[in-house]
């Protein structure tokens, strides 16, 4: 007789497997708004938590996972906007995002990231994945390599029908409005636009930034538009572009009325199109206005058909600012000059002048020049201008920094300041004697003379410790090239708080000799090339020491040192405890 009963062990195993499968399904359902993660039945993304849970399915074993967004998502809420903000989905290697994300014509707002690491974006690293039909509005992203949507795009990945607005800032090698780096094995970015402003904060020429894509290997970006500003603090930079950092792409358009902004001026090194031209459909060769794009002729830039038909809410041009703002502070006042923007976009009613982020007047200025008399010599100021159209202001112009100072002839300077040192004639064998903070400050008027300190000096008093603190002696184009011997005396309480290059007791030197200088209890905050004794320069330094605190004004600063930021020369028996 045959026993057809199933062994109890097999029954128990099957029940356990059914329970585990049911539990797994329940967990997945809880992590998303529904679906099974397949192409026909994708996981539903309707909240920030649903979106955050996609990071649990990374790597090649999850390249068959599909997601569909079914509602607009606001990431401007805790925990996604606290601390360092959103953690990018996907990192390097086996933890990259390899799924398929369909934004389904919805948007994600208020993405916030502030993390000094590589590939900071909504998706950090995407390999063989796909992202489509998704809009990111009002992003605020800071990182080394940074972007709005994707940090690193590799493999056979595809980003299509997506856009970004807001602001992206980066200090690394690749910074882009939409994607920072498009890499190997033929990933593609097609039919996308970026209206985000991109700020390149790095100091290296070996870096790339673009309004749409930071860097692209080959012509892998096609059918794109960049309309935001690209701001760099390096001056003219061959790898900074309004659209793609290395200028590699097909049918790529950008607004040359906005273009690239430097700390000194508004650069125009590229062709691009005017704002007026970008409001015309005929401008955009290769754009599919039957199935993909829509444009409100003479009113909007191109935008996606999935965005709807309400033109006033779509991709609109900004109010254009004035261009080529320049500043001169040579006569103890600051004189600003600028040029109007494209007159085809309308004539502004006037201009608002901002100094250190504060508007200087009530009524708009109607001329193309402005004289600021309410300034102090040897104090650094920054300015920008906004054009006024009715009750609205334009985006800001380029920023200029200036330190007002009346230019004096050597003979007049010597006669005026000769009695401001204790004694001496300023030559190597008979240096000027320095015993007070005022006398130390007067060195900036005689940058090629010789000095000997004869008493301890306290700089932890006004005006040397107020506002931005001590103004470094010597600057680019006007360096200190004499000698200073601290003679074993102390300079105490040096305070600097300036968002600029070359910060220290001496800002910049050229062949100078700095000996026996003791800096105690310094508190210095600067940007690139910052040190307690010297920001940058050339010459020799012997028997010098500093203690206290030296820090960067903002993340990503280069050449920061306890004693010296950057020196082309020799240093002997010196050190710092900071």
Task: Describe the structure in your own words.
With 578 residues, this protein is mostly beta strands. The protein is 7% helix and 37% strand. It has four helices and 43 strands. Strands 1, 2, 3, 4, 5, 7, 9, 12, 13, 16, 17, 19, 20 and 21 form a 14-stranded mixed sheet that branches. A six-stranded parallel sheet has the order 32-33-35-38-40-42. Strands 34, 36, 37, 39, 41 and 43 form a six-stranded parallel sheet that branches. The longest helix has 24 residues.
The chain-level mean pLDDT equals 86
List segments where confidence is low: pLDDT < 50 over at least 5 consecutive residues: 18-26, 263-269
Secondary structure tally: strands: 43
Q: How many H/I helical runs?
A: 4
How much β-strand is present in the residues? 35-45%
Helix content: under 10%
Q: Can you tell me the overall shape?
A: globular
Structural class: mainly beta
Terminal Cα span: 91 Å
The Cα radius of gyration reads 30 Å
How many strands, which pairing sense, and closed or not: the largest β-sheet? Answer: 14 strands, mixed
Short synopsis of the structure:
By secondary structure, this protein is mainly beta.
Keywords:
single chain, 578 residues, mainly beta, 14-stranded mixed sheet, 4 helices, globular
Give the secondary structure arrangement, pairings included.
Layout: H1 8-31, E1 43-45, H2 48-52, E2 66-69, E3 73-74, E4 100-109, E5 112-114, E6 123-127, E7 130-143, E8 150-154, E9 158-170, E10 174-176, E11 179-182, E12 188-194, E13 197-200, E14 208-210, E15 213-216, E16 221-226, E17 230-232, E18 240-241, E19 250-254, E20 260-261, E21 266-267, E22 293-294, E23 303-304, E24 323-328, E25 334-339, E26 350-355, E27 358-359, E28 369-372, E29 381-389, E30 392-393, E31 400-402, H3 410-417, E32 432-434, H4 437-442, E33 450-453, E34 457-458, E35 483-485, E36 490-492, E37 495-497, E38 506-515, E39 518-526, E40 534-542, E41 545-552, E42 564-572, E43 575-577
Parallel strand pairs: 1-2, 2-4, 3-4, 4-7, 5-7, 6-8, 7-9, 8-11, 9-12, 9-13, 10-14, 11-15, 12-16, 13-17, 14-18, 16-19, 17-20, 32-33, 33-35, 34-36, 35-38, 36-39, 37-39, 38-40, 39-41, 40-42, 41-43
Antiparallel strand pairs: 20-21, 22-23, 24-25, 25-28, 26-27, 26-29, 29-30, 29-31
